[in-house]
Amino acid sequence: MCSGPVGRRTNVVLVLADDLGFSDLGCYGGEIDTPHLDRLGRSGVRMSSFYNTARCSPSRASLLTGRHPHETGIGILTDDQRPWGYPGSLDVAVPTAAEIFREAGYATCLSGKWHLSSDTSTLNETWPTRRGFDEFYGILPGADDYFHPRNLHAGEERQPPPTGDYYLTDAIGEHAADFVARQADADRPFFLYLAFTAPHWPLHAPEGEVRSYAERFSAGWDELRAARRERLVEEGILGDEAPLSERDPEQLPWSENEAQAWEARRMAVYAAQVTAMDRAIGRVMSTLEHSGVADDTPRGVLVRQRRVRGGAATSGRTQVPRSAARAHAGRCSDQARERSRYPARRGRHLLQLRQGMGEPVEHSVPLLQEMGP
Predict the structure, then answer these.
(1) How far apart are CA 215 and CA 261, in angstroms?
(2) Is omega for the bond preceding 83 within 30 degrees of 0, making it cis?
(3) Which of 91, 126, 142, 321 has its CA at a distance of 20 to 30 angstroms from the CA of residue 120?
(4) How far is the CA of 241 from the CAs of 110, 133, 348, in angstroms?
(5) How does DSSP assign 173-216, residue by residue?
(6) Are 166 and 147 in contact, with CB atoms under 8 Å apart?
């Protein structure tokens, strides 16, 4: 990453997405609207191959410590599986990036999802505020309702479920932008870890955002997948030597799917989640520029497919929509992930058994980094 001007310490902004497919972003061949991330990617460096740790908590543990997750107390997720397994919490003996930055005089903030503590109900030494973060706004567990999160925390205080037009992705971006503005006013270097829950399940997005994708996915995953491959080649991410892989034999062709409208709707909600995240990132980028600290801040974005993992291959229950205005829930179908995770043939699911080390490009994570102004 580039350095700031001589005599000034460089600010660091690290952005993480959750369960984003390899080719979801526009600059990676996707049909989802992501203008802010596209600007970062196309003006900087887009990596097409990156080792991963296959699942959520191990990926976060490695990212924040620089260590293999098995060394950090996080082997699978955050279940306490002692005495025969992992404790499921980030080992306090392993320093985090936030702790190191804070010792160097940086202001530190986590805005978003933690998912590195086995106990999220009682304050303990594994919570983010005890692991180097001066500020924390977001959720401690792996997922929550986007409209009325029940595990929302500000610092160490659990907040009542929000009401009204609250949307978690927007709130995470707003808190991050406010943190940047305050540190710029104080002329203090900062480390911002902007760890979105989006587009992790449940599928929740504002109805107005979903409507913009009403017809975007009606062609179905077979055509969309082929079109993504062509755009990946045009973007220079894949070469002509990488033909379209065969469809996962466990998945139906779109023409044989009896619930096309429902599946297209679910893909639209997913896309709306990604666009909302991009908008929140754009708000932080704008604040960096308007606060006059953009030149001191390498605008690096590590987009974790579970992009650190590829589109999720887990399946689960689908919740009943609460209302037409709360575009709904559950998860993308296995077939929809066929489109999202391209060029990976399958999702990441149990790749954590190998911790992703040495996985081929199709399980990779791109690094988007703008090398200076």
Answers:
(1) 10
(2) yes
(3) 321
(4) 41, 45, 24
(5) HHHHHHHHHHHHHTT--EEEEEE--TTSSS--EEHHHHHTTTTT
(6) yes
What are the tokens at 89? 């919490």
Q: Is 153 exposed, middle or buried (0-12, 13-18, 19+ CB in 10 A)?
A: buried
DSSP for residue 354: T
pTM of the model: 0.85
Q: Is 70 a catalytic residue?
A: no
Q: Which of 27, 56, 109, 332 is catalytic?
A: 56
Contact 35, 278 (CB under 8 A): yes
User: Tens digit of pLDDT for each residue in 305-341?
Assistant: 344 334 555 544 433 333 333 444 456 665 565 566 5
Identify whether 56 is a catalytic site residue.
yes
Query: How would you classify the pairing of strands 326-327 and 205-206?
Result: antiparallel
First CA to last CA distance, the chain: 12
Residue 4 lies inside a defined structural domain of this protein: no
* Whole-Å CA distances, 35 to 26, 30, 352: 8, 12, 32
Among the options 36, 115, 175, 328, which is catalytic?
115
Type of residue found at 253: P
Domain for residue 171, yes or no?
yes
Domain hosting 149: range is 12-370
Four-CA torsion 340, 145, 155, 1, nearest 10 degrees? 10
User: Quick check: is 7 in a domain?
Assistant: no
pLDDT digits (tens, 9 = 90+) for 165-192: 999 999 999 999 999 999 999 999 999 9
CATH code (residue 169): 3.40.720.10
What's the structural domain count of the chain? 1
Greatest alpha-carbon pair distance for the chain in Å reads 63
CA 90 to CA 79: how far, in whole Å?
12
Query: Do the beta carbons of residue 338 and residue 246 sit within 8 Å?
Result: no
Q: Which residues pair with residue 297 across a beta bridge? A: none
Residue type, 63: L
For residue 360, being part of any structural domain is answered with yes
